[in-house]
Amino acid sequence: MSFKPEKVDFENGIHSVSYTEVRKPESRAPFFNRELSWLSFNRRVLEQALNEQYPLMERVRFLGFVSSNLDEFFEIRVSGLIQQVESNVEIGLNPDGLSPSEQLSRIRDVTKQLVNDQYKCWHDILMPALKNEKIYLKNFDELTESESKWAENYFEAEVYPVLTPLAIDPAHPFPSVVNKSMNVLVELENTEPGEPPLTAIIPVPRILPRVVEIKGSEEEGLSCFMISAIVKRYAHRLFPGMNVISSHVFRITRNSDLYIDDEEIDNLMRTLEEQLHKLKKGAAVRLEIEKSVSEFQLKKLLKEFNLTRENLYLIDGPINMMRITAICDIVSRADLKFVPYTPYTPPALTSSNLSFESLKHEDHLLHHPFDSFQPFVDFLRKASEDPQVFAIKQTLYRTSGDSPIIDALIEASRNDKQVTALIELKARFDEENNINWARRLEEAGVHVVYGLVGLKTHCKCCLVVRKEQDGMKRYAHIGTGNYNPKTAKLYTDLSLLTADDEITEDVASLFNTLTGFSKNPKFNKLLVAPFTLQKTLCKYIEQEAENARAGKPAKIIVKANSLIDRETIGHLYAASQAGVKIDLLIRGICGIVPGLSGLSENIRVRSILGRYLEHHRIFYFENGDDDARILMGSADWMPRNFYRRIEAVVPILNTRLRERIKHILEVYMSDNATAKLLRSNGAYSTIPIPEKDRIINAQDIFAHEATEKRIKAEAMEDPEDVDLKVAR
After folding, report:
1. CATH 3.30.870.10 correct for 528-714
2. What share of the chain is helix, strand, coil (3-state, %, to 5)?
3. pLDDT per position as a tens digit, 8-30
4. How many other β-carbons are positioned within 10 Å of the β-carbon of residue 404?
C-alpha cells in the first residue's frame, strides 16, 4: 500500500499535503512527494521573512532567498518533469504515485500561491517597514524633483551607453534571451494605419547594479530605485522619433541541467565548457513579466518561447526579488542586521599554536560557524610550507572566489610537494568557477583530476603526508561542508582534524580510488558511497530494530538536509514498527511520513531554519548495550548521495568529541524556537512551549557557548570549562 497526495492546501500559511491510499504491488509504504516537500521548505524560508524577531534587512534577504531557490527549482526539477511529460514518461517514476504531469499541476498551484504570498510580504510588510526606517525603494513617479534630475544624469552617464535596443520585425528576428537575464519589452506606436504596435526588447546588462542609491538625499533618508525602472522611464531615448506606448520588465528561466555522457567523453573540461555555452539557450520553462503587459504582447512572448499560460507568472512588483537584497549592502545600519559574530578558535588550533606534533596526539572537532574555519586554512598553509610534508591531497566541490585554499595548494606545489586536487567540475552552478580553478592549479603544477566516470565527487577530505622520525605520518581533515571560507561563516558544519592511523589510511585509499582504478575498494572505518555507505547505514538501522525487539536501548537520530531514499525510508519504517525511537532533523526535502499508527508512530521529524543555514550531516545509533555509533560526513540520505556520488562518512572515536556531538544533537532536539514539526499530513507546525519552559534557539545557544569559550581563552582560563547543559 502507498499513499498518493490528493490535494494541496494552505493551513495557517504552511504548505500541507494530504494523501489517499493507492494499491500498487511495488509500493508498500507512504512517501511525500519530493517536489512538493521542497516547496514546503521554501515556504518556511518565506516565513523567515515574516519573522518579526529578525532584523529588517535580514528579512529582506530571506525574501530574496525564496526567489533564488525557485530559480534553481525551475531550472532543474521543473524542467526535468517537463521533459518527462514531453517524452510521455507518465508512470512508475515516483514512490508517491504522482505522474510527472500531476506533479507539474500541483507544483504550479503551490508555486503561484507561494509567489503571491512572497509579493504580499514585500508590499504589505517589508516595504512599509523600510519606509518607517526612512529607506525608500521608489518608483519614478515618487521621486522628488532633485532625485529625478539625479536619476536622469545617472541614466545618461552610466546606463544609456551600455544599452542596445533590439527591434523585432521581419528584418530583425526575435533575439536570444539569456537565462534569468533582465529584459524590458517595449511596445511602440505603429505609424501604419491598422497595423499592430511595434515591439522591441532592451536587455539590461548584468554589469549594471540592480538597485541604485540616489546620492544627495541622505537628509530625508536613503532613496533607491531599481535599474529596470530607469530603463523603462527613459526607454524613449533609445527610439528617437517613436512613441513608446508601454514597457514591461520580463525574465525567462531556462532548462539548466547539464547532459553529459561520461562514457562518451574524452575531455570532460572541454565538453563542460560546450554544455555551459548551450545552457544559455536551453528550453524556456518559466516566463515572469509585469502584470501590466498587454494581452497582445503576452501572447507574442509565450509563442516565441514556446510556453503555455501554465508557465506564466504575472508579477506585481520587482521581477526577481533576489535583486532586492542589494539594498542590504547599500544600507549600512548595524541595528537593522544581525549582530556580527566572532567565531571561536580553540587555543590549540590558533595559528601560533597549531602544529603537526599536537595534531598527532589529539583529534579536534570544529563546529562552524560558531568555531572558526581558519584552523583548517592554517593547517593547509603550514602543510604547504613545512619541508617535512611530502604530499597534499584535496577534494574541492565548491570554494570561494578568493580562496586561500587554492592559494595554499599552489604554494605547496611551488615548494616542490606532490599536490593533487580533485575538482568536481560538475558541481551544479559552479561548473565555470571550478573549470577556472582547475586551470589555475594545473598552471601551477598541481595534479588536477576529476574523479570517477559517472560519479560526482562530493566528499570533503584533505590528506597531508609528512615524513617524521618514525616514518611517514598521515593527517586528515574530513568535513560535512564545502572548503569555502565564506560559506563556513553562514552554514552550520562540522570539521574533524585527525591523525588516527586507521582513518587516515582509509582517506588515503579513498584518494587512490579517485585518482586511479579500483572496482571494489576496501575501507576499515570510513563509510564511502557508492561502495559501503547505504548498505552499512541500513545494517545499523536493522541492528537498532533487533535491539528494540530484544529490549535493549534503541534510538536513531539523523541530521541531514534531505531524506528521500526509498529503501532507507523503508528500513526506518520497519525500525519504528519494532519500537525504535527515531528523531530526524531534516532541513529540507523529506519523503518519510511520521506519526502514522502502526507504521511510523515512533518517528518524529523536525526542520530547523535560522540565521545560519543548517548543513551538517550527523548520524547517531544507540547500538544497544555497546558504545553508540556516532558518525558525520558529506552525505544526505538521497539516492544521488548513496549511488551517484562519492561521499565520505567518518565515525567519531574520541570520547571527548563523541560527547560534544551528543551535546550538539541534544541542543537541536531541545530547540523550540526555530524548529518546526512535520505532521503526517505534510504540514509543518510550531512546537508548543509550556508556560514554565524557556525558549531554546539552538543556534543562539551554540553562539553563546562559543563566545563564552572565547572570553575564557582570552582571559587565559580553560575554555572547555563551559556548562554545556541545555536548561529545560
Report:
1. yes
2. 40, 25, 35
3. 343 333 343 434 333 333 345 79
4. 19
> Residue 33, CB half-sphere, CA atoms under 13 Å: how many?
28
**Residue-range domain boundaries for the chain:** 2-114, 141-147+154-334, 347-522, 528-714
- pLDDT tens, residue by residue, 129-173: 999 999 999 998 899 899 999 999 999 999 999 999 999 887 778
Average pLDDT on 293-306 reads 93
Asked if the domains 2-114 and 347-522 are classified in one and the same CATH topology, the answer is: no
Mean pLDDT of 307-336: 95
Most confident among 356-360, 696-700, 715-719 (mean pLDDT) = 696-700
Q: Cell numbers for 366, please give them.
A: 570544529
Architecture of domain 141-147+154-334 in CATH? 2-Layer Sandwich (3.30)
Q: Which amino acid is at 27?
A: S
DSSP string across 539-591: HHHHHHHHHHHTTS--EEEEEES-B--HHHHHHHHHHHHTT-EEEEEESS-B-
Residue 41's nearest CA partner among 514, 449, 608 is 608
Q: How far apart are CA 333 and CA 278, in angstroms?
A: 42
Please choose, from the candidates 246, 233, 231, the residue with its C-alpha nearest in 3D space to the C-alpha of residue 291: 246
Residues whose CB is less than 8 angstroms from the CB of residue 157 and which lie 6 or more positions away in sequence, other chains included: none
* Cβ count within 10 A of residue 689: 12
Altogether, the residues listed in the chain come to a count of 728
CATH number of this structure's domain 2-114, picked from the four choices 1.20.58.310, 3.30.70.20, 3.20.20.20, 3.30.70.100: 1.20.58.310
Active-site residue numbers? Answer: 458
Q: Which amino acid appears at position 495 of this protein?
A: S
**Other C-beta atoms lying within 10 Å of the C-beta of residue 89:** 14
Q: What is the pLDDT of residue 21?
A: 39
pTM higher than 0.85: yes
d(CA 463, CA 419): 10
| Helices assigned H by DSSP within 351-462 | 356-361, 374-385, 404-414, 431-443
- Tell me which residue of 428, 434, 439, 381 sits closest to 408, measured CA to CA: 381
DSSP annotation of 76 reads I
pLDDT of residue 2: 42
CA distances in angstroms from 544 to 452, 534, 539, 637, listed in the order given: 34, 16, 9, 18
- Beta strand pairing status for 617-621 and 613-614? unpaired
Q: What pLDDT sits at residue 591?
A: 95
Q: Are 474 and 518 in contact (CB under 8 A)?
A: no
- Rounded CA separation 182/176 (Å): 12
Do residues 420 and 447 touch, judged by C-beta distance below 8 A?
yes
Q: Is CATH 3.60.150.10 what the domain over 347-522 is classified as, yes or no?
A: no
The Cα 284–Cα 661 span in angstroms is: 46
The DSSP-derived string for 577-628 is: HTT-EEEEEESS-B------TTTTTTEEEEEE--SSEE--EEEEE--TTSPP
Residue with more model confidence, 516 or 480: 480
Which residue do the cell numbers 533487533 mark? 546
